Task: structure prediction
Amino acid sequence: MSFAGLAFLFFFLPVVLVGYYCFPRRWRNGFLLAANLVFYGWGEPWFLPVILLTAVANWWIGRRIAACAETGPRRLWLVTALVLDLGLLVVFKYTGFVLDTIGLGQVLAKPIPLPLGISFYTFQVVSYVVDVYRKTAPAEKSVVSFATYMTFFPQLIAGPIVRYEELRGQLGGREETWNKIANGFCLLLIGLGKKMLLANAMGQLWNGLRALPDGIGVLGAWMGAAAFTLQIYFDFSGYSDMARGLGSMFGFEIPVNFRYPYAAGSVKEFWRRWHITLSRWFRDYVYIPLGGSRCGTVRTFVNLFVVWALTGLWHGAAWNYVLWGLYYFVLLAAERLIGEARLARIPRVLRHILTIALVMLGWVLFAIEDFGALAGYLHAMFSLSGGLISAQAAVWVLSYLPLLVIAALASLPLAADWVRRREDARWVHVGAPVWCLLLLAASCAALVAQSYNPFLYFRF
Result:
């Protein structure tokens, strides 16, 4: 079930909200758990046993780890959990990829279906058992509370990746207020607007330019890359906004996942702003345990290589994702060698332009799985042999140019900063509900009218 769907917005969400607030407080986690499982099993009920097995097994193993005083048994239970969690992820997500790589793709009669959100909820439960093992978080006593945390529908399918410690206190006792509900509803609508009004339009422009049979020219290729760059940002950040808004409506505070990444002045800063919870996860559970930057220059670069190869592979079971991850390893290694002091001497505007160009190039590597098609698109981006822009590409670009400009401006903190400076103004508070209702109306109109409505991160 998608958040950007009529069934969710006008049936599932209202029913769950009414039911949640009708139940006594001590039963609300149980009600939420039931709602989470209905949400997850709405389209793919055959994967419910997988997620329930993962939840119960990790809850039980967490209790065993906490009960063990000796190092040996604790480590054995931790390894058991990691083998189970990562093993399920590998089997479902990477079996076909591995078989294709070694030339045995014909062994599978058809691809193994991928459980929704398995990459996200696997990382959540791995962080839980590791934190219990490290004694930085207590083991959850209630299987209902733990399963509610792991299957929490607002962020189950596409994040953010929320650690147990961040929700532990809220699972036991959270405060639901009208202010939280109202703010959550507004954030939900902002995310919905990002998705329906901007991301989908940019996706149509990207697909339209890529499908032109006679080439698009160097400018057309860069405009296509810009369209996908904006599509994936508004698609994913819109979903994260909706997740945070929905969480707030039930009294939960979910961490921020994006902070205007396209305002970054370096690749390192970009990754401090993009998919923050994933970057933090790899830092705390892979990079630092490998030694981080404490073991010399060579070891630091090896650790960075491992982290970014895994980051690419986490995003998808295809070699272009690995290439995308290693592309960022090269960029970040280069920035580390140059040094922040030298980079700071370059004017901010030039650093910003260079960063965005590098990010756009990276998104092309991310978007095109076929290496032949990828090579052709990169050639179009850097060669004038196809001209500046084809006539067909110009028609596409001009048709979407107003939305392209609006999306580009909306990806930067300019408007948000302007409103923030005037947050005490009476018209801001009075007009907010009106803007939210207009945004809801426009998003629903687009939802009814559009047939193109993917969520890019659902497949991860």
Q: What stands out?
A: Residues 152 and 375 are 41 Å apart (CA to CA). The mean pLDDT is 90.
